[in-house]
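Newbie here. two chains, one complex. Structure please?
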Amino acid sequence: MLIPALLTGLVVGLCKMDYFFGYCMLNRPIVEGALVGLVLGDVATGAIIGASLEIVFLGSFPIGAAVSPDGGTAAGVSTALAVITGAGTGIGTTFAVPLALIGGFAYVLCKFINAFFGEAMKAQLLKDNDRAACAIFWVGAWVSQFGLYFLIGFLSIFFGSGAMEAAVNSIPTNIINALNTAGNLLPAVGFGLLLTMIMDKKVAAWFFIGFILTAYLGMPTIAVTLLATAVVVLLLFARGGDTPALSTAAEEDDNEF
Amino acid sequence: MSSNVKQGGLLSNKDLLTAFRRGIHLNGMNDYPAQMHSGYAYAMIPALKKIYKDDKEKRVDAYRRHMTEYFNVTPYVVGLPMGVTLALEEQNAQSDDFDTTTVTGVKTALMGPLSAIGDTIFHSTLRVIAVSVAVDLCMQGSFAGAVLFFLIFNIPQLLVRWWTLKMGYSMGTRFLEDAATTGIMDKISYAASVIGLAAIGAMTATNVALTTPITFGGAGETNPMALQGLFDAVMPKMLPLLLVLACYWLLGKKKVNVVVLLIALIVVGVVLALCGIIG
């Protein structure tokens, strides 16, 4: 169990360095699940769990100071548990919500640790010692994020997979099927949350257009996305930007600052 | 290398490239007192060193300014405040009576509106588009799906990072006025919402699985009537659509907490599945 636990810790820790690497979405379920699957030798399980959880957590991403569930860490650990115990992708997603909460709260701890490094960095900068300040920035980023999330990945596999395996073996089949069915409902929360962020009366029809194209006509999602892109380009540019409700700002005076 | 920076600009394209490269680490050490302040200072250091080459007092003052001031923005658009503040720091270096609160003021004024538009474009739209393109491949168990997602998201965001930095530096504060008068931001935001919503609509039909096994008519008889068949005749995927709209209503209008809703949905889903109502 030591090697898989170490590998999982390594991937989960590196993925949390997402924020250090330009917020490049390493810490999203769709990437982290696939990566853990890759290092543990079961890409398919990782890709499927990752994509399922990506949709569940589609609307959850960290904005500002709020604590949000960490779907990426959940996908990494869930994939490792599913691969090691052989429990399958359905069970893998069931434990994702509590794991995402643990991941989210760990980031609070991370930010407290960062505050100490931040103070040290400031002290060096005020002494005009920029090299030391930059070194502290690097060390702080790696210790708090990689360090903490490595531990989360490592510990949950090292101590958790045995308990998980025992639990999976003792759950009756009909409960497992019911858990799978319930898991399939969760993407609705991800979509609902996103809708609260971007849907208003002006554009709401587009949600239904996308739905109708796929539900009735069976269009793949990629085709719908491309079609919407083409139509919106047409709307915005074909008539010289003469789009309803968008030309209000164009008449402002060109005052000097 | 051709230089598009404004005349009299101290910083070359190479210096801006350094700021761009370091700006990638912006959110690397986020903390509670001031969020991304450490990363902002980290990214600005080499440029500030060049701007205040012979003036230690002003240089340390600039370090202090960016290190202590609260900063939080959608990281992909950080180039704009960085470019604008670098242009302002330059003015400060060249004059004796420059009011440095302008730097703070511009940073603070930019954060809110930029994050609003940055979150819409990158988190709510580009990421959703990337997922919508990659999700089918992933569901087939392919690693290529994750790679595709990663590339679709990151190529545009890196370009925007560089483009906003150049723009902010060469235009200084004038950028803000120009953006407001041309209404370009409104158009981008409108386009982003349209594409994002269409993708969510399509994924609602594809990625939420909810059917009912309920049938009418006696067991074993010739033609028991399946309730699901009735639903499908009216509108395929009707139940997933209703479920998504219900979640939208609960989260948006009823302000139900996301985690509470997720857990409630698991519990209700398991109970309904065990009772043979869904599945």
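Moderator note: Chain B touches chain A through 123 residues (CB under 8 Å). Strands of chain B lie at 215-216, 225-226. Thread marked as resolved.
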